[in-house]
Design goal:
This protein is α/β, with parallel strands linked by helices. About 20% of the residues lie in helices and about 20% in strands. A six-stranded mixed β-sheet has the order 2-1-3-4-6-5, sandwiched between helices.
């Protein structure tokens, strides 16, 4: 699979995906403009789906981006990443599953329990050795650090999608 056959959607401007040869869509490029048919790695905004949704201030239409990304992964194949406690998971169809990971195992300072929805993918590759902490509470981090995808996680997801 070539770099242009794999897209990373809803990434931060300083994302590690930029150095991994994938077609990147940040807020400026706007993931909704993606029209390819290759696999995607989607990190849609989660603030309107998570534990703190009652105090979140999402942009108009932001909540629907996760549902759009879920359908895109179903069609094209790939992976969607969202918090383990996200309300998005109730939209899974019968037979669809997720993989529970800890982003700390990939180098994040917080434990950050995360679910990965995947479709049309090969077998899940080995996960890294488990980190033992101590972990920094995610609430004690700035927004950029909370949202940053660890480089090892990005590399692992890209390798999985390209296998």
């Amino acid at each position: 699979m070539t770099g242009s056959d794999l897209a990373a959607l809803f990434i931060c401007a300083s994302s590690p995906y930029l150095a991994l040869g994938v077609d990147c869509y940040d807020v400026v490029r706007d993931a909704r403009t993606y029209s390819g048919s290759g696999k995607v790695i989607a990190h849609p905004p989660c603030r309107s789906w998570g534990r703190y949704k009652a105090v979140a201030k999402p942009r108009p239409g932001e909540r629907g981006l996760a549902l759009w990304a879920l359908d895109l992964v179903r069609r094209n194949g790939g992976v969607l990443e969202h918090p383990a406690s996200s309300g998005l998971w109730r939209y899974l169809q019968p037979g669809e599953t997720t993989l529970l990971i800890r982003q700390a195992d990939f180098g994040h300072r917080a434990e950050k329990l995360t679910r990965l929805f995947y479709a049309r993918m090969p077998r899940v590759p080995l996960l890294p050795d488990r980190s033992t902490g101590p972990f920094v509470p995610v609430e004690n981090m700035c927004r950029q650090e909370r949202e940053r995808t660890p480089r090892l996680l990005a590399e692992w997801l890209v390798t999985w999608c390209r296998s």
